[in-house]
Write a sequence for this structure.
């Protein structure tokens, strides 16, 4: 067992894949390439500078190719590769013992041998050939394409699909998956009562039409593009990007075809007569980390920003670690430095400063940096113009008085009166100016992308150093991918967008549908959703991935249609109940032999508490808000002159907005979020980690806002005129939070708890009073009862089933 | 991504236990029956250390902002007579500078502080460090540390994570990942930031959680930052109106129902949730016990100096660091800010030294008298050094210094390091390394080595590479300074 790769699920998946390889024919891409890539390509791969012995094993043919000297197809015994990997001589054996590469295991060597014996067939790397529609002939009409392809794999593994989950589980699952919120009791009741054939379709359509769909699905995109509210470097000043977030949410809600979504991100500003939305979308290029002026060298900052832009394009659309080629040719994928800087050349022509500016003026307070567009409406613009006129007029009056004063010599009386008037006018002017500025600060505006009129040349940067330019490179796409088509001498970002969304592009659609799949199943079909290259993982269901990708393109990149088709599948609706052995064999459910069960994201943890307790403020869009967090956190990391430096929580119902609107300081994001694996948004993140730690337990137990929410729900249920007895109240609370009713055994456990807590709180009136501080104890109830019900509700929030998508 | 091999193994043990014992036990009883396993994570990724470790724990005293080596450790008497002379181009060799001093004259600013030979071997130390001078025989001063980055943010990120690119695992995360835990109630990696400092409020930069982050390693390896006010660990305290008995009673039911659900659903993650809730409950007791210094004898408090009586002081954090190491915390990292003396250095440096001198000397003495110094490696360093030439006003007793990555000084103590020596030599301007260069990656390699780890064999696959703390450039263990 490899000692370092310690993720048990990873190991299990590897074993499954290896098991499959033994059962079926060897496939180069699936079985051999990952071994060669990991153990050999570093010295015998695409990077010509590192290449040893003039041998490359990533290619069969050519003067340095594997067949030239290293591999004799059909005969392992005659192949140098076989001799080397099985040698006992430390000077001969490959990979070399001092090369920090793990030796091949016996079963890995066996695979290599089998492959050579069978003729050592090479294949083009799967992710770099266009997706092909899988053969579905023979599939009965009653079985959907997704289910048919999943079952092919299950049959090969000797597994069978699970039964459908029960309806309560299903509605909780799909509501969380499509909106990030739990279903209401009314929604549950309606689904349970709907015995029509399209009951499920009705639920799915309702959720896809919900404005919360865009908030939820858009949030994953915001991880990919590292959306945040601060610069992320040095002072970590405020940076206003919220119009971009609003656009993303609107785009998903309006089901903007995804090819247009890509185009608007990449090149919205270059469209003929771009709409405001398209300009806002081009703010994609402004989401990178950025330093404020004063310590770094601007030319270095400039390069850093462009590198960051390229990385976001690499992660978001290519699903490749292109950033590896900043300093050298990629070690594993055929991305050369020239390829990298040819991409770089598309993004280095930004018409703006590479560092954020000083504190003078309103831009700083607004978190803006040119170029930006105003999003103020006509009324607001008019008001601003009026205030500007007033301020200008007041300035003019000051200037006039100054002039008069200069002209008056030797008339002390007049000078005195003029001086007094001037002082007054100056005060007035100052007030008028701040009134104008204060108003301007409240107006919305969006930072956008803009090209310089005179294109900036791009150079290969030697070892990635900003001050070490090599040869000049033109704008182009990586040579191993389809060629770029362009109508002009100088390719533009629009051409690049068209290239990405060409149906023949091997990566864009695959990378996208894989991320959507990951949202719905917890793990992508390609687990490494950020890396589809040679070091990424082979897809668990290659045909399914291709089916989804081609289907997505065919439907005109229709996001909602894709989600609909997936959640309508029987695969999606399977029960996640398994035996411990099932879970041990396939912890992450890569085989899809059951429903996936996984802990929901940080934002959903909080949003679920807010929604189920009745506190959620469902308002859409707008600037970021600051729900309370423990005191002193920002101050402990900020500079004295950071803006903002101190965290001042919002008040009122702003603190109950959905978490997607929470203010994100990259230097220290809200701990309620990061403790549950939300990324800092300092780097593009295509996949979050999902851990289970004591700090998470502490948040759910002790976060005061969460406890207040529990109290709110308890109080509301106790106050209902039709509240009923304790069993009924318990059922209402339990169903509101988990979508399930407690069975007899659970009810008994909870009611025992309730009784004990009531006793404890009766003995502790001061604590009961503290817990009930600021709320009205329902009529006919004591503080001890409300306290006990609050803790009972909190207990249900702390159940594992509540943290999990079922 | 669910959790780890260890936890899976533990889950199996647990399952066996549940099978044989039935499901009716309260969580408290279960916790008591499985004390070793209830932490749910004892082992590290390394099955065994690569060599016999010389240290079990590390206390890293990070001087954020970069202290001036010329005024503290790297004695350059020859500069006295070069006051206000331009730095010879043969020394600066056109090396890059920051935006703050680019294009400006580089005039030599000698240190105004006196140096004296200290300890048996007579190593030079500044008058600003009287207490550390008294423990000179325990110190190994390294004068030839050097780094790649010239600005704070990347340089701090580099020192803490081995890479200027944000998002790589930090030193403590690597150790937690590689070696696992030595205690059952506390995190493996704790971060303590000074809440205040004396040497000027302006000479300071931000800190970022990435400096103690876990990068692509599982996030349980990230540093837990203790707060200087409020709960030492975020969300540690029960809310108002909830006491420990109430919490225990509630957790018992949560555990009971969770266990029932595990029986029905089969997902071992549910068991992890139960274990982590129990760990959280234990931390609610163990962390306040850790941070409560009331029971420390007066003599010990006096050793750390007057500031130890204030929460959030560097002195208090040194004392807490000792208490953590005593309780089996693997890696404690202190951040003390305020060293970025671009101007009026002579006015502001003494206050900074006041903050750290007595407490860090006390830490050495205190660990030593408890027999813990030999198992504890203490490292003291900033992210880079400061220039021999002046930034801003230059007088004999008023000058400033810009960032300088090419050489800087730090010290190590305990944990199998030779005491009473200084190591490495810089040129007459403390500008270039002349002998025995110690790049940051060598410091990292040495640190890992003292904990029994070969830095080339503690790796984690990410972005197609086997990542390691020392990165891809060759790194070496500084054998010369090992005891």
């Amino acid at each position: 067992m490899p000692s370092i790769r310690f993720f048990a699920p990873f190991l299990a998946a590897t074993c499954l894949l290896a098991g499959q390889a033994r059962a079926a024919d060897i496939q180069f891409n699936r079985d051999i390439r990952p071994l060669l890539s990991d153990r050999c390509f570093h010295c015998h791969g695409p990077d010509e500078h590192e290449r040893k012995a003039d041998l490359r094993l990533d290619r069969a043919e050519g003067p340095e190719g594997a067949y030239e000297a290293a591999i004799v197809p059909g005969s392992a015994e005659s192949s140098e590769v076989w001799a080397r990997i099985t040698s006992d001589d430390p000077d001969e054996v490959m990979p070399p013992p001092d090369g920090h590469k793990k030796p091949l295991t016996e079963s890995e060597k066996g695979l290599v041998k089998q492959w050579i014996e069978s003729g050592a067939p090479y294949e083009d790397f799967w992710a770099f050939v266009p997706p092909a529609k899988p053969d579905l002939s023979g599939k009965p009409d009653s079985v959907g394409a997704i289910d048919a392809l999943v079952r092919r794999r299950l049959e090969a593994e000797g597994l069978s699909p699970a039964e459908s989950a029960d309806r309560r589980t299903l509605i909780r699952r799909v509501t969380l998956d499509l909106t990030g919120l739990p279903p209401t009791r009314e929604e549950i009741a309606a689904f349970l009562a709907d015995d029509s054939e399209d009951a499920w379709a009705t639920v799915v359509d309702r959720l896809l039409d919900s404005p919360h769909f865009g908030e939820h699905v858009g949030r994953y995109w915001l991880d990919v593009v590292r959306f945040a509210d601060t610069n992320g470097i040095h002072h970590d000043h405020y940076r206003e990007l919220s119009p971009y977030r609003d656009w993303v949410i609107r785009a998903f809600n309006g089901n903007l075809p995804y090819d247009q979504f890509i185009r608007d991100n990449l090149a919205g500003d270059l469209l003929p007569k771009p709409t405001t939305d398209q300009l806002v979308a081009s703010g994609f290029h402004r989401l990178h980390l950025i330093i404020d002026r004063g310590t770094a060298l601007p030319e270095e900052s400039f390069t850093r920003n462009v590198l960051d832009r390229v990385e976001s394009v690499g992660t978001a659309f290519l699903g490749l670690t292109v950033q590896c080629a900043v300093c050298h040719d990629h070690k594993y994928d055929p991305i050369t430095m020239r390829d990298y800087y040819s991409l770089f050349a598309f993004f280095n022509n930004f018409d703006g400063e590479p560092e954020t500016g000083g504190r003078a003026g309103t831009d700083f307070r607004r978190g803006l940096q040119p170029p930006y567009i105003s999003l103020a409406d006509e009324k607001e613009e008019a008001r601003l113009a009026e205030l500007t006129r007033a301020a200008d007029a007041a300035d003019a009056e000051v200037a006039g008085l100054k002039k008069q004063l200069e002209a008056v010599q030797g008339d002390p009386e007049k000078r005195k009166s003029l001086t007094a008037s001037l002082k007054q006018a100056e005060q007035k002017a100052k007030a008028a100016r701040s009134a104008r500025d204060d108003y301007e600060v409240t107006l919305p505006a969006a930072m956008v992308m803009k090209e310089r009129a005179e294109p900036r040349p791009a150079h290969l940067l030697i070892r990635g150093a900003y001050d070490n330019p090599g040869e000049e490179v033109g704008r182009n796409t990586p040579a191993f991918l389809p060629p770029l088509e362009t109508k002009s001498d100088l390719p533009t970002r629009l051409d690049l967008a068209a290239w990405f969304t060409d149906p023949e592009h091997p990566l864009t659609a695959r990378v996208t549908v894989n991320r959507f799949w990951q949202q719905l199943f917890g793990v992508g079909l390609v687990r490494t959703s950020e890396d589809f290259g040679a070091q990424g993982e082979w897809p668990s269901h290659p045909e399914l991935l291709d089916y989804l990708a081609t289907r997505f393109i065919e439907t005109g990149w229709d996001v909602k249609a894709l989600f609909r088709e997936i959640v309508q599948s029987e695969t999606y609706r399977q029960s996640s109940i398994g035996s411990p052995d099932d879970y041990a064999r396939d912890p992450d459910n890569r085989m899809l032999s059951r429903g996936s069960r996984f802990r929901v994201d940080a934002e959903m943890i909080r949003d679920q508490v807010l929604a189920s307790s009745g506190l959620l403020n469902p308002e859409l869009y707008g600037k970021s808000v600051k729900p309370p967090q423990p005191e002193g956190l920002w101050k402990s990391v900020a500079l004295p002159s950071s803006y903002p430096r101190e965290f001042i929580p919002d008040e009122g119902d702003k603190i109950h907005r959905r978490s997607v609107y929470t203010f994100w300081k990259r230097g220290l994001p809200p701990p309620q979020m990061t403790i549950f694996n939300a990324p800092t948004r300092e780097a593009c993140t295509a996949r979050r980690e999902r851990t289970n730690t004591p700090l998470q337990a502490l948040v759910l137990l002790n976060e005061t806002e969460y406890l207040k929410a529990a109290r709110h729900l308890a109080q509301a249920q106790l106050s209902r005129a039709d509240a009923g007895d304790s069993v009924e109240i318990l059922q209402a609370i339990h169903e509101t939070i988990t979508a399930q009713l407690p069975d007899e055994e659970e009810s008994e456990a909870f009611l025992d708890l309730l009784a004990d807590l009531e006793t404890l709180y009766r003995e502790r009136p001061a604590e009961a009073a503290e817990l009930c501080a600021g709320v009205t104890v329902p009529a006919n109830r004591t503080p001890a009862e409300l306290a006990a019900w609050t803790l009972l509700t909190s207990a249900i929030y702390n159940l594992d089933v509540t943290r999990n998508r079922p | 991504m669910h959790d780890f091999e260890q936890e899976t193994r533990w889950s199996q043990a647990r399952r066996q236990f549940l099978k044989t014992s039935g499901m009716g036990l309260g969580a408290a009883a279960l916790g008591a029956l499985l004390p070793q396993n209830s932490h749910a994570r004892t082992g590290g990724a390394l099955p065994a250390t690569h060599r016999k470790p010389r240290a079990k724990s590390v206390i890293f005293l990070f001087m954020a902002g970069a202290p001036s080596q010329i005024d503290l450790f790297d004695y350059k008497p020859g500069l006295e007579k070069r006051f206000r002379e331009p730095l010879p181009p043969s020394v600066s060799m056109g090396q890059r500078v920051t935006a703050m001093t680019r294009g400006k004259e580089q005039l030599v600013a000698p240190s105004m502080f006196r140096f004296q030979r200290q300890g048996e071997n007579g190593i030079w130390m500044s008058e600003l460090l009287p207490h550390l001078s008294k423990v000179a025989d325990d110190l190994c001063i390294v004068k030839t540390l050097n780094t790649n980055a010239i600005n704070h943010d990347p340089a701090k990120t580099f020192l803490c994570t081995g890479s200027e690119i944000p998002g790589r695992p930090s030193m403590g995360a690597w150790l937690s990942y590689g070696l696992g835990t030595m205690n059952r109630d506390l995190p493996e990696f704790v971060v303590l930031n000074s809440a205040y400092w004396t040497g000027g409020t302006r000479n300071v930069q931000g800190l970022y959680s990435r400096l103690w982050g876990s990068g692509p390693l599982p996030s349980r390896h990230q540093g837990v930052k203790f707060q200087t006010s409020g709960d030492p660990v975020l969300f540690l305290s029960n809310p108002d109106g909830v006491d420990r008995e109430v919490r225990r009673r509630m957790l018992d039911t949560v555990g009971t129902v969770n266990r029932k659900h595990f029986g029905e659903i089969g997902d071992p993650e549910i068991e992890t949730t139960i274990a982590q809730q129990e760990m959280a409950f234990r931390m609610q007791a163990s962390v306040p016990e850790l941070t409560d210094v009331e029971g420390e004898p007066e003599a010990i408090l006096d050793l750390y100096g007057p500031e130890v009586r204030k929460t959030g002081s560097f002195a208090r954090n040194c004392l807490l660091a000792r208490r953590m190491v005593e309780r089996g915390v693997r890696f404690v990292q202190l951040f003390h800010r305020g060293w970025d003396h671009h101007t009026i250095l002579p006015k502001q440096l003494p206050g900074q030294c006041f903050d750290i001198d007595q407490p860090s000397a006390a830490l050495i003495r205190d660990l030593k008298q408890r027999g813990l110094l030999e198992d504890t490696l203490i490292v003291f360093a900033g992210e880079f050094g400061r220039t021999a030439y002046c930034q801003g006003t230059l007088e004999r007793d008023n000058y400033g210094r810009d960032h300088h990555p090419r050489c800087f000084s730090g010290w190590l103590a305990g944990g199998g390091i030779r005491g009473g020596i200084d190591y490495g030599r810089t040129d007459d301007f403390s500008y270039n390394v002349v002998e025995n260069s110690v790049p940051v990656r060598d410091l990292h390699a040495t640190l890992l080595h003292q904990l029994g780890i070969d830095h080339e064999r503690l790796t984690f696959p990410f972005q197609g590479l086997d990542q390691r703390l020392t990165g891809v450039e060759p790194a070496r263990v500084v054998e010369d300074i090992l005891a």
